[in-house]
Amino acid sequence: MNSLDFFNARLEATISPMDFVKSAKLHPEKYFLVDVRNGPSEFKKVTIKDAQMIPEQDLPNRLNDIPKDKEIIVYCWDVWCNTAAKAAKFLLENGYQVKELTGGIAAWREMNFPVSACTEGATDKDHCGC
């Protein structure tokens, strides 16, 4: 793979927080945003506004909760976490159209975009799984 192929593939597989906000305002019905973070609930006090909480480790049992007619946007903790990449790969293998939100919730919060208090907490047995 050459550099051009790499960057084309990267742009096809990801969306920045700024681009997502812009596109979701124009086409809110197009997207299904999923917080795939694993980990203890005390670390997941906020989520991106309107995101569905489906931890990556629960995806195999929750596919019926994810619509196939929307573009799925997944995110995890930050740029160092690969949980969203694992989730995206799994969803792609199962026939979904998926992109990873670059920078995760850390980038989202850094840009002061809207967040909500988490409504679906994980249990203490959960782990990051990065």
Describe what you observe in this structure.
This is ArsR family transcriptional regulator. It comes from Bacillus swezeyi. The structure is a single chain. The protein is of the alpha/beta class. It has one domain: 3-Layer(aba) Sandwich (Oxidized Rhodanese, domain 1). It contains five helices and seven strands. Helix 4 (83-93) links the parallel strand 5 and strand 6 (97-101).
What is the number of independent domains?
1
How large is the radius of gyration? Answer: 14 Å
Mean pLDDT score = 89
Shape: globular
Main sheet record? 5 strands, parallel
The unreliable regions are 121-130
Which percent band covers the strand fraction?
15-25%
The string of secondary-structure elements, in order, is: HEHEEEHEHEHE
Distance between the termini: 26 Å
- Give me the count of strands: 7
CATH topology: Oxidized Rhodanese, domain 1
| CATH class bucket | Alpha Beta
- Number of helices, where a helix is a run of at least 4 consecutive DSSP H or I residues: 5
Q: Classify the secondary structure makeup into a structural class.
A: alpha/beta
The CATH homologous superfamily: Rhodanese-like domain
| CATH architecture identity | 3-Layer(aba) Sandwich
The share of residues in helices is 25-40%
Q: If strands are numbered along the chain, what order do they take across the biggest sheet?
A: 1-6-5-2-4
